[in-house]
Amino acid sequence: MSRAYNSSLPGVPEWLNKGDNGWQLTAATLVGLQSMPGLVILYASIVKKKWAVNSAFMALYAFAAVLLCWVLLCYKMAFGDELLPFWGKGGPAFDQGYLKSQAKIPESVMWNGDGTLKKAAVEPLFPMATLVYFQFTFAAITTILVAGSVLGRMNIKAWMAFVPLWLIFSYTVGAYSIWGGGFLYHWGVIDYSGGYVIHLSSGVAGFVAAYWVGPRPQADRERFPPNNVLLMLAGAGLLWMGWSGFNGGAPYAANLTSSIAVLNTNLSAATSLLVWTTLDVIFFGKPSVIGAIQGMVTGLAGVTPGAGLIQTWAAIIIGIFSGSIPWASMMIIHKKSALLQKVDDTLAVFYTHAVAGLLGGIMTGLFAHPDLCELALPVPTRGAFYGGKGGQQLLKQLVGAAFIAVWNVVSTTLILLAIKVFIPLRMAEEELGIGDDAAHGEEAYALWGDGEKFDATRHVEQFERDQEAAHPSYVHGARGVTIVL
């Protein structure tokens, strides 16, 4: 036995695989970087200048709040022992004995009538501490994605109340039902790495939240230019590269499935980005950075339900559909629907995540390869494209999507209506006109902005008024130069 795995070493138990543990911690860090600082940067830069601080802070707060709630209560609600067929028993996950033990997921299993195990739990070769943190990063990014729908007007205090409540009553239900040993898990719904639990969930919840919070002021809806396009690309880059941990970490091992998942993930993202950009050029005459980022996100969300379970040519097909169907839903269907136009989804999270996640889940039901499923799933299955009982899998995918969508509509609505009793969901009109300074007493840049051309006369006049108010002995020389007497 290698000295590194000597059982006499207290920090290296016999079951621990250092390679798997190292990869899982790396994957968790990559997913964490998607949120902090990835989405913090993306949100801060993609919005109007006056909302940069508020948008970044919503993501930052959610990341921190979710972690505390996760170890206090929510990990076991999502992956612990069964309380209900769709919900686990909550409890703390910070006991050192528990965290040092070998990981096991899910903790609740079901038995057949003859006493045999219906679906065995997975026991990765790393400790529970690694698993708890890895799953936290998924919970955090899901909650932050919901924020994208309500940027630019939600009361920050209402958001601070919303985050833990939505995590408890919405996210944990979806995670337990599909991943944690719930009824959809045992029925055989496939969600390889979060197409339903994360993307469909956040997209639907974001849309519902946008409805109840209400729209931005009309001026912001009509003109909402990003304040820093280059920083947008930096945030989007962290999101894209972090997705290798997102889908590469889902098998809980550095194995064949993780390698295939990483390749398929990046290929789908690239294909979707190119398709979205091509459609922009065809219909609008020019490509845009925002459009390219949206295409990238839809490709990533679309491949997530089956990244390690599909052949690479299927990842390209998913990329093509992920770059075109969400584009059409946003650019065509949205403009023809009174309901969709009424709801002000700031960053179009419904289209880029819910539509793409649903599309990916359905296409996984079509293209899940039986050999790849055998490598990764407790119970082998196949997509409809490969015959056999694949048609049943497609039906399961549709039912699983319907449950996640309906639960998020109901739970998000009830949570926001409860918060509204105590805290206004939307900022006051005066605060909406001011932005960050009213909400936080801070501003992102000491610059003029929001895309206007520099008006020297207007800014000199404002400077002169400020100086007069501050020092009565100032007088003005030629061309606006200020002279102290």
Write the layout of secondary structure elements.
Elements: H1 18-46, H2 52-79, E1 82-84, E2 87-88, H3 96-100, H4 128-147, H5 156-178, H6 183-187, H7 195-213, H8 218-222, H9 229-248, H10 256-284, H11 289-303, H12 312-336, H13 338-342, H14 349-367, H15 370-376, H16 390-422, H17 429-434, H18 436-440, H19 456-470, E3 474-476, E4 482-484
Antiparallel strand pairs: 1-2, 3-4
Helix pairs in contact: 1-2, 1-4, 1-9, 2-4, 2-5, 4-5, 4-7, 5-7, 5-16, 7-14, 7-16, 9-10, 9-11, 10-11, 10-12, 11-12, 11-14, 12-14, 14-16
Mean pLDDT: 89
Query: Given the C-alpha coordinates, what overall shape results?
Result: globular
Share in β-strands: under 5%
Largest sheet: 2 strands, antiparallel
- Strands, count: 4
Question: What distance lies between the first and last C-alpha atoms, to the nearest angstrom?
Answer: 85 Å
CATH names the topology as Ammonium transporter fold
Uncertain runs are 472-485
**Count of separate DSSP helical elements:** 19
Spatial sequence of strands, sheet with the most strands = 1-2
* CATH C-level label: Mainly Alpha
Order of helices and strands: HHEEHHHHHHHHHHHHHHHHHEE
Count of domain modules = 1
**Which structural class should the secondary elements be placed in?**
mainly alpha
Q: Measured on Cα atoms, how large is the radius of gyration?
A: 24 Å
CATH superfamily: Ammonium transporter AmtB like domains
| Helix percent band | 55-70%
CATH architecture: Orthogonal Bundle
Keywords: Ammonia transport, Membrane, Transmembrane, Transmembrane helix, Transport
Protein name: Ammonium transporter
Subcellular location: Cell membrane
Family: Belongs to the ammonia transporter channel (TC 1.A.11.2) family.
